[in-house]
């Protein structure tokens, strides 16, 4: 089975999923940054489709940019939150959650 990439954004300041947050995905290789997709989170703080489907998911370095400044209307000091990570096992599901407020964030490899 091929893997895929997903995310989930939770607004810890308001205690709810981050609905309407713009998310961009890039692949990094050879000093280049290739834009793959732009999505917006739904009412559950997830995207309606995977960030990257199995047929496009491969080994390498990726970056998800979460546009939290837009989401919080410019409040706080965070603008964009970039999360870079390596995929070494493309047959696995990679899930990158973000817990965010206008002033801080946490991320990890979820399941």
TrEMBL record:
<feature type="binding site">
    <location>
        <position position="108"/>
    </location>
    <ligand>
        <name>substrate</name>
    </ligand>
</feature>
<dbReference type="InterPro" id="IPR023418">
    <property type="entry name" value="Thyroxine_BS"/>
</dbReference>
<dbReference type="GO" id="GO:0033971">
    <property type="term" value="F:hydroxyisourate hydrolase activity"/>
</dbReference>
<dbReference type="InterPro" id="IPR014306">
    <property type="entry name" value="Hydroxyisourate_hydrolase"/>
</dbReference>
<dbReference type="InterPro" id="IPR023416">
    <property type="entry name" value="Transthyretin/HIU_hydrolase_d"/>
</dbReference>
<feature type="domain" description="Transthyretin/hydroxyisourate hydrolase">
    <location>
        <begin position="5"/>
        <end position="110"/>
    </location>
</feature>
<protein>
    <recommendedName>
        <fullName>5-hydroxyisourate hydrolase</fullName>
        <ecNumber>3.5.2.17</ecNumber>
    </recommendedName>
</protein>
<keyword id="KW-0378">Hydrolase</keyword>
<dbReference type="InterPro" id="IPR036817">
    <property type="entry name" value="Transthyretin/HIU_hydrolase_sf"/>
</dbReference>
<dbReference type="InterPro" id="IPR000895">
    <property type="entry name" value="Transthyretin/HIU_hydrolase"/>
</dbReference>
<dbReference type="Pfam" id="PF00576">
    <property type="entry name" value="Transthyretin"/>
</dbReference>
<comment type="subunit">
    <text>Homotetramer.</text>
</comment>
<comment type="similarity">
    <text>Belongs to the transthyretin family. 5-hydroxyisourate hydrolase subfamily.</text>
</comment>
<feature type="binding site">
    <location>
        <position position="8"/>
    </location>
    <ligand>
        <name>substrate</name>
    </ligand>
</feature>
<feature type="binding site">
    <location>
        <position position="46"/>
    </location>
    <ligand>
        <name>substrate</name>
    </ligand>
</feature>
<dbReference type="InterPro" id="IPR023419">
    <property type="entry name" value="Transthyretin_CS"/>
</dbReference>
<keyword id="KW-0659">Purine metabolism</keyword>
<comment type="function">
    <text>Catalyzes the hydrolysis of 5-hydroxyisourate (HIU) to 2-oxo-4-hydroxy-4-carboxy-5-ureidoimidazoline (OHCU).</text>
</comment>
<dbReference type="GO" id="GO:0006144">
    <property type="term" value="P:purine nucleobase metabolic process"/>
</dbReference>
């Amino acid at each position: 089975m091929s893997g895929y990439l997903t995310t989930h954004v939770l607004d810890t300041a308001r205690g709810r999923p981050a609905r309407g947050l713009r998310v961009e995905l890039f692949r990094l290789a050879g000093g280049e940054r290739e834009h793959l997709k732009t999505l917006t989170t739904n009412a559950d703080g997830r995207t309606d489709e995977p960030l990257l489907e199995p047929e496009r998911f491969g080994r390498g370095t990726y970056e998800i940019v979460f546009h939290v400044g837009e989401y919080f209307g410019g409040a706080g000091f965070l603008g964009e939150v970039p999360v870079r990570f390596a995929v070494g096992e493309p047959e696995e599901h990679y899930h990158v959650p973000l817990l965010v407020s206008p002033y801080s964030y946490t991320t990890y490899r979820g399941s």
